[in-house]
Amino acid sequence: MNTYFQPVALNKAYRLLNHGPTVLVSASHAGVDNVMAAAWACALDFDPPKLTVVLDKSAHTRQLVEGSGWLVIQLPTVAQARLTHQVGTQSLADQPDKLAHSGVQLFRVEGYPAPLVSDCSAWLMCRVIEEPHNQTTYDLFIAEVVAAWADTRVFQAGHWHFEQADPALRSLHYVAGGHFYAIGEPVVIDGQAKE
Amino acid sequence: MNTYFQPVALNKAYRLLNHGPTVLVSASHAGVDNVMAAAWACALDFDPPKLTVVLDKSAHTRQLVEGSGWLVIQLPTVAQARLTHQVGTQSLADQPDKLAHSGVQLFRVEGYPAPLVSDCSAWLMCRVIEEPHNQTTYDLFIAEVVAAWADTRVFQAGHWHFEQADPALRSLHYVAGGHFYAIGEPVVIDGQAKE
């Protein structure tokens, strides 16, 4: 990765998800890598940071998450909208070259088993906390974030700075039917100092 | 409410949350109403629609949710950023006139026990699905959406149309420290017809 790829302190990692972006979920097991899109990922706790993500039983990536116990949640950018839609609508079961076909490039960080998607704006490396009832009944997975990174062009000192960067780096927020929004302009409450 | 307040079909209700807005949570029990802000609310299922929301043990609204089994998740607008920040940082325990002080006006829809916050852009009336382990261990509540409404100026025919309305009606996406983003511009994948 490039020099913009930098660690985020774990007690600030929830801020990478707090504004509700659509994410990519990547995982690897027994030599198979896969990536899916998910609109239903959410912060769950601050420190240690935890998150929830909904992984449908039909998703091949879910098998890799269950097999390995690890996943990466990462934020695709506006420049990756087509990639995001493609990995969200194609299945590895039907299309074995899904990742290449969608233009997904993976990389790895030493010491962690799950692959990361290149050119995203932030990455959360997560270990699954086994909760069989939630997983079976609701397709709901809970995971602890054990490491996080962000692209310093858009996230620095614990805050997003989308308005100071190329609009192609903004986060995506999916509605339905190929219809996303990009995150917009800052709204700051007077008299509030950023922490 | 005004004529813009219209029902949303339950099988489209997940789209009100899909783009990751910060929400207001309202509830009522034993004659006490309260409202809090939450960044950690997320769709969980399509039809019947379900959602998750994290309610900290210190939140007075949580007691009302637990006591009544009902809550409303609603989307504040850019025009309500200060209100949202105030109900998110003040507690009814410390400030008994919190709602009046924050400028919150409530209304009710006949047949439903929980109050709704005026001037939001969408509302999801929810019945809690009791999951004591999640509630105790993670402060995580699961609820079924039994009715939904939206402001037709920004949500019609199953889709948001923020770009066609007053920017003051856009959804809020909280980061931290009084720092929100508004939702931005649409990103549409070529060749995808809206459903």
Automatic annotation (TrEMBL), chains A, B:
A molecular function (GO) term: FMN binding
Domain named Flavin reductase like: residues: 15-162
Protein name: Flavin reductase like domain-containing protein
UniProt keyword annotation of Flavoprotein present: yes
Organism: Pseudomonas reidholzensis
Organism placement in taxonomy: Bacteria, Pseudomonadati, Pseudomonadota, Gammaproteobacteria, Pseudomonadales
Domain of life from the UniProt record: Bacteria
Pfam families: Flavin_Reduct
Keywords: Flavoprotein
Alphabetical list of InterPro entries matching this protein: Flavin_Rdtase-like_dom, Flavoredoxin, Split_barrel_FMN-bd
Cofactor: FMN
Family note: Belongs to the flavoredoxin family.
